[in-house]
């Protein structure tokens, strides 16, 4: 993701949803009509209904901070909540509190720790309306896209609630000498994890990543982005209600360049999601202290539509892949590669669907896309689009901000004729913008898809499952989805998820997603005879005996 506010929403005529099939015959390439605005349902809640002084006062009790800061609602640009701000000494205090609580938490049997995650799972689904409101208010995203976060966190909570014990239980390993050397692999918690979370997916990328750390017996000091702090604090409150000791989960807030390095300076392990540039700084800070780190960073994710793809399904999938959360998703698609034989048919459908995307700024279902989160994001999107058009790229859809809907809205945008001289070609936009490229040769398009510093996610569309798998295996991306944009791989939490190349280090999900929060400890017990000359053997006889034993173990295929 990249580094890093509105009059009340307007309403307009009802239009087909982006998920509704749209007749391609109605599509004419070139700038088209403005995206429609979804009408707000009667009785929809407002920020004043949700973020009351009582709610804010209750949630911010979880912050260690003596200063003051605030966040704003992207839908309106108005101040949302006044929040505590943490100074370096507050970060040190948060880590001291976490360390004091972690020892007792680590002594709790793993199945009891995991049971907290399962109770949290149930509470999250029961009370999801509360956090959906907060996610929308703090990010500006459409409610359906906010619900993606609820789904992702619930899936992770269930997975680690069920699988934490099998992942963490002691394991017997083969010893140096069969029968005589008994070996057990133990998993010890790292201690206090420093977790730096971004603003774009404030539920999933805050508490979702912390759940396996808690299950492994760690405490966590989290620095969520101030813009989306209420969502993270709500999740903390729910975890405490589910049985997590409050001291085990500390929260600090403040500017990244001030608070972030302090988190890295005190942590026993660092988990970070954000830009590649900042990720390098985090990695350097962790390396200086010889502590581990996991990083999920930027992406310039490609989608390949092969000659045998179902273009109707591919076009619908591309709308989801490119414009979910207004493109502010590390694994969203920003490059579309279309086989020449299906490119026109695909674009007719995709452009029509893109122009039908309904914008909305209300706390309810019904809008297809929401707002960007901040002024810097809107400026970056506008800059990329305007520069590309000035250099000769063609607008097939969108291309303009929509201040009539809200101060940070921008239409979903499709560009063709993009070349390497344009920033949108190689830089991560992190907004609702996708560029289109045509190809004729499969080997060539794989090379073009891989021709980037990033390697986070990719998508392949084909009717041939074997072909899809073969192409996927040649793409240098941590996850590849066949006939889906990003959700199939990300939602499959038994499998690891993360980036190659400049897109990161380490993985979330699966065994890797929890074992990274532990230190492996090997305990070996030797019986009967030592691994040294004994029973009257001299050194030469011992060496000969061991040589014969090693040959025998190979012959018996002992591991």
If you had to describe this structure to a student in words, what would you say it looks like?
With 559 residues, the chain is α/β, with parallel strands linked by helices. It folds into three domains: 47-297, Aldehyde Dehydrogenase, Chain A, domain 1; 299-493, Aldehyde Dehydrogenase, Chain A, domain 2 (3-Layer(aba) Sandwich), CATH 3.40.309; 529-555, no CATH class. Helices cover 41% and strands 18% of the residues. It is built from 19 helices and 20 strands. A seven-stranded mixed sheet has the order 12-13-14-11-10-16-17, sandwiched between helices. Strand 8, helix 10 and strand 9 (292-296) form a beta-alpha-beta unit. The longest helix has 26 residues, at 143-168. It starts with 46 loop residues before the first helix and ends with a helix. The model is unreliable at 4-28 (pLDDT under 50).
Short summary of the structure?
With 559 residues, this protein is of the alpha/beta class. The chain has three domains: 47-297, Aldehyde Dehydrogenase, Chain A, domain 1; 299-493, Aldehyde Dehydrogenase, Chain A, domain 2 (3-Layer(aba) Sandwich), CATH 3.40.309; 529-555, no CATH class.
CATH topology label of the largest domain: Aldehyde Dehydrogenase, Chain A, domain 1
Q: Mind telling me the CATH superfamily name of the largest domain? A: Aldehyde Dehydrogenase, Chain A, domain 1
How many helices does DSSP assign?
19
Number of DSSP strand runs: 20
Q: Poorly predicted ranges (pLDDT <50, ≥5 residues)? A: 4-28
Radius of gyration: 26 Å
The structural class is: alpha/beta
CATH first level of the largest domain: Alpha Beta
Helix % is 40-55%
Mean pLDDT, all residues = 94
Give the count of structural domains.
3
The CATH architecture of the largest domain can be named as 3-Layer(aba) Sandwich
Organism: Streptomyces somaliensis (strain ATCC 33201 / DSM 40738 / JCM 12659 / KCTC 9044 / NCTC 11332 / NRRL B-12077 / IP 733)
Catalytic activity: succinate semialdehyde + NADP(+) + H2O = succinate + NADPH + 2 H(+)
Protein name: succinate-semialdehyde dehydrogenase (NADP(+))
Biased composition (Low complexity): 1-32
């Amino acid at each position: 993701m990249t580094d890093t506010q509105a009059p009340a929403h307007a309403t307009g005529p009802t239009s087909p949803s982006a998920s509704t099939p749209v007749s391609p015959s109605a599509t004419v390439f070139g700038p088209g009509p403005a995206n429609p605005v979804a009408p707000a349902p009667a009785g929809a809640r407002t920020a004043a209904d949700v973020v009351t002084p009582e709610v804010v006062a209750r949630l911010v009790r979880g912050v260690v901070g003596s200063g003051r800061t605030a966040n704003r609602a992207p839908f309106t640009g108005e101040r949302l909540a006044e929040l505590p701000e943490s100074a370096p000494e507050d970060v040190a205090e948060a880590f001291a509190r976490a360390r004091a609580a972690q020892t007792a938490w680590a002594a709790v049997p793993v199945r009891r720790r995991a049971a907290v995650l399962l109770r949290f799972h149930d509470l999250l689904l029961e009370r999801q309306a509360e956090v959906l409101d907060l996610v929308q208010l703090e990010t500006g995203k459409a409610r359906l896209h906010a619900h993606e976060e609820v789904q992702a966190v619930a899936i992770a909570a269930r997975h680690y609630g069920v699988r934490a014990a099998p992942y963490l239980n002691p394991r017997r390993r083969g010893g140096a000498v069969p029968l005589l050397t008994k070996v057990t692999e133990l998993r010890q918690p790292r201690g206090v994890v420093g977790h730096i979370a971004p603003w774009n997916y404030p539920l999933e990328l805050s508490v979702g990543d912390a759940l396996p750390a808690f299950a492994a017996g760690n405490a966590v000091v989290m620095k969520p982005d101030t813009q989306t702090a209420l969502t993270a604090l709500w999740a903390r409150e729910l975890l405490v209600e589910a049985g997590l000791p409050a001291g085990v989960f500390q929260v600090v807030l403040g500017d990244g360049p001030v608070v972030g390095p302090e988190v890295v300076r005190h942590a026993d392990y660092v988990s970070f999601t954000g830009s590649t540039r900042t990720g390098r700084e985090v990695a350097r800070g962790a390396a200086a202290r010889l502590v581990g780190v996991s990083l999920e960073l930027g992406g310039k994710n490609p989608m390949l539509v092969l000659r045998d793809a179902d273009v109707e399904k591919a076009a619908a999938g591309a709308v989801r892949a490119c414009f979910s959360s207004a493109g502010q998703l590390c694994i969203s698609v920003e490059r579309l590669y279309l086989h020449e034989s299906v490119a026109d048919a695909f674009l007719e459908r995709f452009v029509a669907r893109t122009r039908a995307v309904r914008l909305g700024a209300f706390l309810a279902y019904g809008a297809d896309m929401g707002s960007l989160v901040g002024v810097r994001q809107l400026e970056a999107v506008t800059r990329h689009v305007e520069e590309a058009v000035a250099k000769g790229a063609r607008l097939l859809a969108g291309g303009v901000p929509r201040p009539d809907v809200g101060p940070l809205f921008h239409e979903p945008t499709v560009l063709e004729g993009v070349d390497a001289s344009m920033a949108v070609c190689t830089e991560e936009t992190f907004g609702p913008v996708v560029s289109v490229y045509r190809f004729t040769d499969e080997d060539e398009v794989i090379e073009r898809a891989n021709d980037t510093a990033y390697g986070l996610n990719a998508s392949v569309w084909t009717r041939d499952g074997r072909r899809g798998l073969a192409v996927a295996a040649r793409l240098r991306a941590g996850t590849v989805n066949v006939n889906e944009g990003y959700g199939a791989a990300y939602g499959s939490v038994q499998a690891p998820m993360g980036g190659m190349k400049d897109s990161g280090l380490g993985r979330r999900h699966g065994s890797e997603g929890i074992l990274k929060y532990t230190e492996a400890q090997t305990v070996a017990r030797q019986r009967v005879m030592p691994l040294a000359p004994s029973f009257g053997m001299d050194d030469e006889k011992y060496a000969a005996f061991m040589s014969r034993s090693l040959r025998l173990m190979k012959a018996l295929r002992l591991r």
